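Posting for a labmate who doesn't have an account.
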Amino acid sequence: MTNDQDWENRVTALWERLDDHEPAAFRARVAELADERPEDDAAALFERGAAHDSTGLPEEAVALYRRALDHGLTGPRRRRAVIQLASSLRNLGRPDRSVELLTAERAIPADRLDADEAALGGAVDAFLALALADTGRDREAAALALGALAPLLPRYNRSLAHYARALLTAPDGS
C-alpha cells in the first residue's frame, strides 16, 4: 500500500467516526493527518475545510475550500469542495454566490467528469435547489429537485420529469 493510499484510508476511517468526537477534537485529528502532507497540499486543505464545515465553523471552511481549489484540487474532492463551499456560502447568507458556483458546476459536460465526480451530480442539484430557494426562486428550486428525483423512482419517472419541466414554463405549474 502506498503512503498516499494509507493516508486516504486513515482519513476515510476518521470521517466514519465523526460522531464519536467532540468538534474540536475531530478538527485536531484531521489537522494531525493534514500535517503529514505538504503545507499547500490541496487534499489536506480540503479535509481541514470539511472538518471545520462539519463541526459548525463555515467561515473557516470557506477559506480552506478556496485555498484547496486554488492549489489545484482535482477529481471528486474538487467537486465536493465546490458543493461544500457553495453550501457554506449559502449558510453564511450568500445564496447568490452559491447559485453561481453550483450553476457553473452543473454546466460541466458529463464527458469531462469521471464516474465518482458524476455520481455527485445529484448533490450538486440538491444544494443548488436549496440556494435557489434562498434567493426566492422557489419554482426553479422545486423543478430542479423534482427533476433530480424523477430517475430514482420505480414508477412515475416520466410524469414527474414532465411536471418538473412544467414548473418552469407554466405560471401555475399545471
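Reply:
Got it, the C-alpha cells are right above this. The chain has ten helices and no strands.
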